[in-house]
Amino acid sequence: MKTHKPVATILIVSAVLHGILSFSHFSQVGILPYIMGTICLLSCIASAACFYIKKRLKNTKSWILYHNFFAVIALVTLIGHIALSR
Ligand code: HEM
Ligand code: HEM
């Protein structure tokens, strides 16, 4: 998929901006959405990083397994993040 890489990059850049801009809401939502959001963002970055360091991963053929592992963590924490933001 040609669009996957640019879309993932936009996701990460916009999530960083979203995280920074959302700090004005701290008093309304508490700390939990920030913790979940940060784990979600770090998982997205780790998933993307797997692609760039795939040559350095021991079993090069299985880099997609690491990529998918972090993508699943990102999805699960995203659900928690949105639920806790309400
Ligand atoms: C991939 C990463 C992220 C995605 C996709 C994401 C997505 C979302 C979405 C869809 C909401 C709206 C929930 C609602 O209105 O009920 C939200 C709210 C929020 N997010 Fe994130 N987020 C991400 C990362 C972060 C990070 C890194 C932080 C801060 C460290 C953060 C802090 C917040 C806060 C405080 C709210 C609540 C704002 C409010 O309702 O007033 N998010 N996020
Ligand atoms: C710059 C960042 C990224 C790059 C270069 C990248 C690259 C790739 C590549 C090469 C594939 C396999 C070939 C394909 O189907 O296109 C793939 C599959 C996939 N990526 Fe990414 N990716 C990135 C970020 C992300 C992020 C942030 C997520 C989600 C959090 C994600 C989720 C997935 C999923 C779910 C698949 C399908 C896995 C499968 O077919 O088993 N990717 N990615």
Written account of the structure:
With 86 residues, this protein is an all-alpha fold. The chain has one domain (4-84). It is built from 4 helices and no strands. It has helices spanning 4-21, 26-29, 32-52, 63-84. Helix 1 packs antiparallel against helix 3 (32-52) and helix 3 (32-52) packs antiparallel against helix 4 (63-84). The N and C termini lie far apart (34 Å). One protoporphyrin IX containing FE (HEM) binds next to helix 1, helix 3 and helix 4.
Specify the structural class. mainly alpha
* Helix/strand order, N-terminal first: HHHH
Radius of gyration, whole Å: 14 Å
| Count of distinct strands | 0
The low-pLDDT segments are none
**Unique bound compounds:** protoporphyrin IX containing FE
Tally of separate helices: 4
- Quick one: biggest sheet? none
Shape: elongated
Average pLDDT over all residues: 94
Proportion of helical residues:
over 70%
Distance between the termini: 34 Å
Beta-strand proportion? under 5%
Number of domains: 1
In short:
With 86 residues, the protein is mainly α. It is 76% helix and 0% strand. It has one domain.
Write the layout of secondary structure elements.
Elements: H1 4-21, H2 26-29, H3 32-52, H4 63-84
Helix pairs in contact: 1-3, 3-4
The protein binds protoporphyrin IX containing FE (2 copies).
What descriptors fit this protein?
single chain, 86 residues, mainly alpha, 76% helix, binds protoporphyrin IX containing FE
